[in-house]
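USER: Study each token:
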Amino acid sequence: MKVKATLINELNKGLYKLLIIMTLSFLGLMFYFSWRTEQQYIEERLGFSNLGAFFLVLFLLIILGALLFSLSYYIRKLKSHTFLFLLICVSFSVRLVWILTINTPPATDFRAMYDGAVGIFYRDWAPIQREYFYSWPYQLGFTVYESFLLSLFGEGTFSIKFFNVLYGVGTVFFTYKTSSLLFNELAGRIAGIFYAFYIPAIVMTSVLTNQYIAIFFFYWAFYLLIKNGINHKWNWIFIGALLAIGDIMRPLGAFILLAVSCYVFLAFLKKGRIHKERVVKKFIGIFVVFYFVHYLISASFIAWGITEYPLSNRNPLWKFVLGFNHETEGQYSVEDAEYVARYSLGTERNEVEKELIKERLEDKSEVAVLLWKKFNNMWGIRDESIFWSMGHQKESAQVIHKVLYASERMMFLLLLFGGIAYLLFSFRTEMDKRKAFFLILILGYVLVHLLVEVQTKYRFFINPALAIIASLGFVTLFYHTKFLSGGRGRIRSNLKL
């Protein structure tokens, strides 16, 4: 038994080290690509030399870090309820001001879903009887949600945007609470403040995106998972239901369930026989609740005549077709869309898409180059959330665009710096499964987007997790540099990575 326990313990440590090394490698690459993007942007827009732009980025990063250090020094003195009240008020205010100031008209997928919502509201099924919804019935979850808001508050986009504000503030809250629970109160405050002011999290509120409501429910489920664990009496029911609602709004459930499975596996390794049986039962329960909620909603939509298909993806290979397109470097392709549209949805189109994918994977050296470029396109280039929010004001808001684009990359660099610091410190300590869960999320999300279509707006889901991981890196640095000497004992007591 002793030998078996030792082997399991060594396996556990080895898995954690592998997880840290892989995540550290990806965060390091993100940092490199983001730094290069910011440096090139300064060279082109401000006319700096290559060396001058490098030192300007370094200077700005130091200034931003110093501001974070100074802010951390003062916010640690606030009482918890005072800080939380201020965090909620500020988060709500900046987002509300944004939607009142920036009137973003619906476009592309957002337009299709909003038109579908208006159609459902007026019992006109024409807007949802089109190939967009036939191909991806899962988009009807958010579409029906939008229609529900229209039925409550009348036609117009404001109510949808206002609820984006509320969900955004809710995500700030869960980012703060999760980081506080994992690390300490100061880490939670840093994570909460960072996400409260993170530019994409603010500017996308005026876009009719399904991401706000989805990540609100996802991160609520994550908070319950790490707070009470999977072995809690009723926790598994709420986790399964919350994940299902999030997935119905934005289909990331399969990936998230895989991450939860990895988390449960780590928990399984450390438990005794009786606890293992309970963990397995509750884990199965999460899946049962998840798919039951899915079935219930799908059956309701079919019964109401909204769709004849379950809320699923009827064109599952499409994202991979785009993801392996060498010409567009894994981004959207109009030519691909026009080509596959010639074939009927179902078996015929699936076969054509399989052939495209197979053809694009033949040259392994070219695939390696493609993956390198895709990684840069997904994580290194400037965030297009500003375009999605303010693209209609392109000529009249050039200065604002430049400031927001440059600021977002600097904030992302600081976020990555904190995450890298955390991972480096983690080598010297034992990491528990709760913190490992967020590394699994980050690592898995990066790997998924090496295979499928990339767009910078898809970063949105993982940003709170990055803020959570980065917050401990900053607190650890503050302690080691003795920056927060007044609160040293309290910080140190909570500093188990």
Notes: The longest helix spans residues 2-46.
